[in-house]
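Need tokens for this chain, all 41 residues.
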Amino acid sequence: MKVMAFAFLTVIAISVIADLTLHRAGFSSREVTSGPDVRLD
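Here are the structure tokens for all 41 residues:
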């Protein structure tokens, strides 16, 4: 049971760190999929 809890915490930590890193690097979905040439009607 301890191993499973440790695995869940590790996955959560990796997910949070990856999310923060990608946002700081400019790879958020909003920045990648939109630009000045995107026309929204």
